[in-house]
Amino acid sequence: MTTLTGDSITLDDGRPAVRLTRTYARPAERVWQYASDPAELAHWFPSAFEVAELVPGATIRFFDDPNMPESTGTVLAAEAPRHLSYSWGGDEMRLDVTPLDDGTTRLMLTNVLGSADTAARNAAGWELCLCALDAADRDEPAPTAPAWKEFYDAYVEIGFPSGAPVPGLDA
Asked: Which end of the chain is least crowded, N or C, by CB within 10 Å?
């Protein structure tokens, strides 16, 4: 059975989102690098990420993603080492870094969705991405994770909204 770590949520403003969390035995500053440094993002984020400076209003260029054309987004908030949010492909990404009392740090990824029917698709993709981040955090090669479809089917089975086109699978 595939272990799912995501939640399908509705934000206070009514927008749909998926949220996944991980806890790392690292200080907040190190986990912040995972969320904000293009060299670290290359280990787990699906697109290459290029930005001159992480400040609100800055343009981010996303490229080299096999499932999306090159695009741009905008930094919405950047409060090192705690919070980063930006627009990306019609969605909003929020990455929150929280130091915990036991010396570990929680990374919360919230993908605010442009459309609710992308919840299962996006949650499955983020599961794979965060599996790669978990491996990078342990200085291990990317794991042989379950296939995206296995995560997707499991999210659909537990009731995540679905039906959006899937790049590479749908014409």
From this structure: C
Which domains does the chain possess?
6-157 (3.30.530.20)
Structure tokens at 69: 């054309």
Question: Which amino acid is present at 171?
Answer: A
- Residue 87: φ, ψ to 5°: -85, 145
Lowest-confidence region among 32-46, 69-83, 132-146 = 132-146
Q: How far is 84 from 66, CA to CA, in rounded Å?
A: 24
- How far from 106 is each of 16, 103, 121, 137, 153, CA to CA, in Å? 22, 10, 23, 13, 27
The rounded mean pLDDT for the chain is: 93
Residue 50 has pLDDT above 90, yes or no: yes
